[in-house]
């Protein structure tokens, strides 16, 4: 878990460093218009979209930890290359490859979570590593503030935003190397476990009815993933919650600066966002595991985010404090996305089906984040009313979709219970490890 947390923190920091750099002089030094800056936010997710399906295929066929660590090491080099960019074209190319390489990390960590933890633990564990996005916002804001102050004193021989990218690139490459050494591909080859402990680790997750991975690609599972209505409900949640997320993660420093705060203060004021989001996401995921109602708890996170958007949208521009508080609550809506992400780990069985559903979920994640920055129009500054209207509609749709997921899971559990209660039902020997899909296995229980 510490490894997952560290890497997830740095991947988010690498992604949103663009927002810090935007008010540290990047836009002026590279002659970017606001429209071009929006495209730097979107091109990352075009790269993510291109990389998502190949990386999910690779995660099923190749050693999980080795593939992930190789991607991390290379994307660290790409982050460092951002420091050498002098125009829009160079930045676009680097951001595209950064997105393509980062596309591996969320599916990879979801698979790790499903290999090591029980269903009742997976929501909280996913919340822990995913909430490190929020931790990176705290650390990143303070770090960028420090770099910006040093730059203002002419402490660097190059621009401060270039130093920021070089620093983050070096840290990421180091973490990639550490992950290659210490993260096992599965419990079966964990060097820190004895042979007896490896057996115990596998037996511990027997009740998940989802195995520990299978390298064979099975067409019938791929087809089942495409015709399962839950797959498309997951995807609907993914795109609708990430349209708001894409805009906020690209524009958050500009949003705070446009409230009337100076640029260096705006960097520092981004830090409390991380604390609010971390508490919100961890709270939502913990309650979801404790109550067994992840979708209902995830919906609460979405509604808190909706409250923040309404404050940003409706409060007078003169009310800087109220709008800043609203901004802090906006990103709590990502707790809904995390809840569904953890549900894919818990509720989708069959290696090919799981990798297919995860790929689709992350493709729609990329599409949503791609669209998000494009809703922030230059003529709408500084309130960005169009973006906030779109965000409001998206979160409402996401909550309705999550309630549908909850209802479908309850219905499927009742149907499975009826089959297992029939005296004629006989379970297959060791069916928990036969790589059956959730629809094939009547003993499968859906977390709600």
UniProtKB/TrEMBL annotation:
Protein's membrane topology: Multi-pass membrane protein
Q: Which GO terms describe its molecular function?
A: transmembrane transporter activity
Which cell locations does it reside in?
Membrane
Which part of the chain is the Major facilitator superfamily (MFS) profile domain?
1-410
Q: Which named protein is this?
A: Putative MFS allantoate transporter
From what superkingdom does this record's organism come? Eukaryota
PANTHER family given in the database record: ALLANTOATE PERMEASE, PERMEASE-RELATED
**InterPro entries for this protein:** MFS, MFS_dom, MFS_trans_sf
Coiled coil residues, start to end: none
The UniProt entry, under Gene3D superfamilies, shows: MFS general substrate transporter like domains (1.20.1250.20)
**Entry keyword set:** Membrane, Transmembrane, Transmembrane helix, Transport
Sorted alphabetically, which PROSITE patterns does this protein's record hold?
A: MFS
Q: Which family does it belong to?
A: Belongs to the major facilitator superfamily. Allantoate permease family.
Which species expresses this protein natively?
Answer: Leucosporidium creatinivorum
The signal peptide stretch is none
């Amino acid at each position: 878990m510490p490894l997952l947390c560290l890497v997830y923190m740095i991947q988010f920091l690498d992604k949103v460093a663009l927002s810090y750099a935007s008010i540290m002089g990047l836009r002026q030094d590279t002659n970017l218009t606001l429209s071009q800056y929006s495209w730097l936010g979107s091109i990352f997710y075009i790269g993510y979209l291109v990389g998502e399906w190949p990386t999910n295929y690779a995660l099923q066929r190749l050693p999980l930890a080795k593939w992930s660590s190789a991607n991390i090491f290379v994307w660290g080099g790409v982050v460092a290359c951002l420091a050498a960019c002098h125009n829009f074209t160079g930045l676009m190319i680097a951001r595209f490859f950064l997105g393509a390489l980062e596309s591996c990390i969320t599916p990879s960590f979801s698979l790790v979570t499903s290999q090591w933890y029980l269903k009742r633990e997976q929501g909280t564990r996913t919340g822990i590593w995913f909430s490190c996005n929020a931790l990176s916002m705290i650390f990143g804001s303070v770090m960028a503030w420090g770099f910006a102050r040093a730059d203002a004193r002419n402490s660097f021989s190059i621009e401060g935003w270039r130093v920021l990218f070089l620093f983050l690139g070096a840290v990421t490459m180091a973490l990639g190397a550490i992950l290659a050494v210490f993260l096992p591909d599965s419990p079966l080859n964990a060097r820190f476990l004895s042979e007896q402990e490896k057996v115990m680790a596998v037996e511990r997750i027997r009740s998940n009815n989802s195995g520990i991975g299978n390298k064979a690609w099975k067409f019938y599972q791929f087809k089942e993933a495409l015709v399962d209505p839950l797959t498309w409900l997951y995807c609907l949640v993914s795109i609708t919650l990430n349209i708001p997320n894409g805009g906020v993660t690209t524009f958050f420093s500009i949003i705070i600066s446009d409230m009337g705060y100076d640029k260096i203060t705006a960097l520092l004021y981004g830090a409390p966002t991380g604390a609010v989001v971390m508490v919100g996401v961890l709270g939502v995921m913990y309650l979801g595991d404790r109550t067994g109602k992840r979708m209902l708890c995830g919906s609460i996170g979405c509604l808190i985010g909706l409250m923040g958007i309404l404050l940003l949208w409706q409060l007078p521009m003169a009310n800087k404090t109220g709008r800043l508080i609203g901004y802090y609550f906006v990103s709590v809506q990502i707790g809904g996305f995390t809840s569904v992400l953890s549900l894919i780990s818990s509720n989708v069985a069959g290696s090919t089906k799981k990798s297919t559903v995860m790929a689709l979920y992350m493709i729609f994640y990329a599409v949503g984040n791609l669209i998000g920055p494009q809703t922030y129009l230059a003529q709408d500054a500084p309130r960005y009313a169009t973006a906030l209207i779109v965000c409001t509609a998206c979160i409402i749709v996401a909550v309705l979709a999550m309630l549908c997921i909850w209802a479908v899971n309850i219905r499927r559990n009742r149907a499975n219970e009826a089959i297992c209660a029939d005296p004629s039902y006989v379970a297959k020997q060791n069916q928990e490890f036969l790589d059956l899909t959730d629809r094939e296995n009547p003993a499968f229980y859906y977390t709600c």
